[in-house]
Each structure stands twice: as C-alpha cells, then as structure tokens.
C-alpha cells in the first residue's frame, strides 16, 4: 500500500497544499524569467479537425479584451459559417472577408482559385501591415500556399514586415516547412477519430 493511501483526509489535504505551494513557487520563478513581449505568428496545421476552431477561439478571446481583429478566409466564401454569424455581433472591432466559392476540389477552376486567393491575400496583407488591427487570422492560407496559388516568399516577407506587436494566425493542413520555421507557435492537429469516417455528414455548429 502506498504512503498516500495510508494518509487520513486531513493529511492528504496538507500534503496537497504543500505540493501545490512548491509548484506555485516554481511556476512564479519561470514566469518571472519571461520578459519578452512580441506579436506572435501562430500556425495551426495537421490532418485533425480543430485548426480553424482553435483559431477562432483565439479571435473571440482577443475580442473579449476589446482588441481589433481581422479575419480572412481563403476558400470558404460559399458557406455561411457560424463563426462569421457570431462575428457580426462585434462589427465595431472585427473586419471579415471570405474569399472563393469553396475549396479547390469544388471549383475545379485553377485560374479562378488563384484570382480569388490573390484578392483575399491583398486584404490580408493590408490587415497584417496596418497599425490598427491587433490580431489577424488567415484561415486556410496553408492550403493556397500548398497549391502555389500565392508566392510563399511574398507571404513570409509580409509576415516578417508586420508591426512588432501584431499577432497573425495561419491555419490549414500541410503547412510549408518555411512557414513552420518562421512561426513562434505551431500546433499539429492529429486525427484520432472522426465521425465522417462512420458516414456522419458535417454538422451545423460543429463543422460549420
């Protein structure tokens, strides 16, 4: 029998309090060493669901702090998503642009896809470089970069030229190695299980 299993409830409570006290001291020491403040480049990639969902969670967190945000969706213009509906309630703080008529496998028109990607990037670039927008989400930008609809070198140059405090979030599977290298925070969403494989269609409020 372990030592903890032999403790009384009072002893367990004291043991827990002492353990958390030590953990708090370690945490405070670590936090005190973190003094850099900068705008972050955040990349959400991988085959699992949740890349855009996590990004919009960050956008709503920023809005909760009264920050001005910009959202550009590459390739999702044909579907009215729940997040776009919700963002309309924050029209004084957010600017949203949804490009395209669906994903590239839906349009099957490369020339049109490239044109719409360029249009969306022009707007995203303006948001990334301005002095007012504090957080910019480029949703599915990794997809258009994967298909070479935009110049990766230009995108990375704009990201490097952004104001020092500007946060940019980039989503989409198959992030380019150069984008990952440039990022401050990268999350690779791993697919463990998805209802689509069991014949379940996309659900309102979950998928869109």
* Helix-and-strand structural type: alpha/beta
Can you tell me the CATH topology of the largest domain?
Rossmann fold
Q: What is the average of the pLDDT values?
A: 90
Highest CATH level, the class of the largest domain? Alpha Beta
The gist of it:
The chain is an alpha/beta fold. Helices cover 43% and strands 14% of the residues.
Describe the structure.
By secondary structure, the protein is of the alpha/beta class. It has two domains: 1-35; 41-198, 3-Layer(aba) Sandwich (Rossmann fold). Helix content is 43%, strand content 14%. It has helices spanning 9-32, 51-64, 82-87, 104-107, 110-129, 141-146, 152-161, 177-182; strands at 41-45, 69-73, 94-98, 135-139, 167-171, 185-188. The protein has a six-stranded parallel sheet with strand order 3-2-4-5-1-6, sandwiched between helices. Helix 3 (82-87) links the parallel strand 2 (69-73) and strand 3. The longest helix has 24 residues, at 9-32. The chain is globular. The termini are far apart.
Keywords:
208 residues, alpha/beta, Rossmann fold, 8 helices, 6 strands, 43% helix
